Amino acid sequence: MQPTLDPATLKNLIFDLGDVIIPIDLTAPIRNFAMLANMPEDDVRDLWQQHDFLNHYETGLIDDDAFRNHVRQLISQYSDAPKGWADEVIDTAWNTVLLDLPVERIERIKQLRTRYRLFLLSNTSPIHIRQVNQVLTGMGQPALEELFETVFYSYDLRMAKPSPGIYQHVLTQAGIRAEETAFFDDNALNIRAAAELGIQAVQVQPPLTMLDYVKDLS
């Protein structure tokens, strides 16, 4: 059951990025790497699951170059496709997870920041953040770091949702109280972990979007 948000008690809003602000397709990178490697999608998906370097990348344990090299080495072991993909080829395939960004969501965030302190908390990678910011600025919109008071990225913090520590870090770093804070995320585990700390955690679930969940906030 979703909590009922009371604007009178709220001072702070924390947003997830993927499937809250920007729609994503988690299967798209697998499809694209499979096409590039001339391999079945299921085989690429199995390799990704067996070699869990993505978690290392999103928690800052490896950098962009190490991530790209992991992709090259992994595919080269199991594919007869041309080796040595350029950085741009890997980045482009990796960024296909990001779908079109609805400008109305950005405009709503800009409205909300006149009334609330706004923060971003995302399990993500530097390649994705650079791409989102490129899309935003190409639309004439502020970059994420300008749109929010503070952005919290898993790769910077070296921890990820749903670890309780990441939520506590945000509360402490921002100097905000859990009970005065709403958190919007699409993942049920992330929502549960935030709620256990007293945050008003709201799961964004299709067919509803972020806009539906914040429509009653002035």
From TrEMBL:
Q: Coiled-coil intervals in this record?
A: none
Q: Where is the signal peptide?
A: none
What is the protein name stated in its UniProt record? HAD family phosphatase
Look up and give the organism this protein is from.
Answer: Spirosoma sordidisoli
